[in-house]
Design brief:
The protein is of the alpha+beta class. The chain is built from 8 helices and 8 strands; from the N terminus they run ααααααββββββββαα. The protein is globular.
Length: 248
């Protein structure tokens, strides 16, 4: 028996109908074979983005759908019911866009339409092997060098690692504990950025998880989100909502 959903508007109901159709026609027929082959379905995220489903909780002026979070979570449930790995990916992608949407400059936010439209897929780099539940213990550094920063370190358990087009990276810019962390947007084609072999997992094998290595990765200073020292607050601001996405 189908779930009877409580939605605030007819537009939201139409979005859920669209999601069910895409899930039935585009996701469900591929899911089992892709999971068995541990295949990452990059094209699916373009399909969902072009349908307007990746940016639902973000403002329309930023390229999003302007929908309440309750609608986005119900859309996410429909996607995950057909293909759980893709549901995880949609949630993580939304998390990777949040800092730019809330703390980016107007010039930086010009990148958002392609990100929310699925042409650019994001990843979120916070945890490290020794700093999972305690991110303030991170050791990845971003050292200012003129008009650039140079990033050195590693980030563990990165969803979309090796497949993303951009990485939202938290890195240390001073020794001042939790107040010494800043946030950066790093392009996947940056010199010195690489992904380890993907983790072997018991499930969700269509969702790639890998360690990302930053070996002298140089990025322009305009790729920093917010001010120096604000990175941890930017990172944590969306985690509660991100947990709701994973629950969905």
């Amino acid at each position: 028996m189908p779930v009877r959903r409580l939605v605030p508007t007819q537009e939201a109901a139409d979005l859920l109908d669209l999601t069910r159709q895409l899930a039935r026609d585009e996701l469900a027929p591929r899911a089992a074979a892709a999971e068995a082959a541990e295949e990452f379905p990059r094209d699916v995220f373009r399909t969902l983005g072009r349908a307007g489903l990746l940016g639902l909780p973000y403002a329309e002026e930023l390229g999003g759908g302007g929908q309440p979070y309750e609608v986005y979570l119900q859309v996410l449930e429909e996607i995950a019911a057909a293909w759980a790995s893709v549901g995880v990916g949609v949630s993580v992608h939304g998390l990777s866009c949040f800092g730019l949407a809330t703390r980016g400059t107007p010039a930086q936010q010009e990148w958002l339409p392609e990100m929310l439209g699925g042409e650019q897929l994001g990843a979120y780099c916070l945890s490290e092997p020794h700093a999972g539940s305690d991110p303030a213990a991170m050791r990845t550094w971003a050292v200012r060098d003129g008009d650039s920063y140079v990033l050195t370190g590693e980030k563990a358990w990165t969803t979309h690692g090796g497949h993303a087009d951009f990485y939202k990276v938290m890195a240390r810019t001073s020794d001042d504990g939790a107040r010494g962390i800043s946030c950066f947007l790093v392009s996947a084609d940056s010199d010195g950025l690489s992904a380890d072999t993907a983790e072997r997992k018991m499930g969700l094998t269509g969702s790639t998880t890998a360690t990302m290595r930053f070996e002298g990765v140089r990025i322009d200073a305009d790729r920093r989100l917010g001010e120096e020292g604000e990175g941890l607050s930017i990172a944590l601001a969306r985690l509660d909502a991100g947990r709701l996405g994973i629950a969905a």
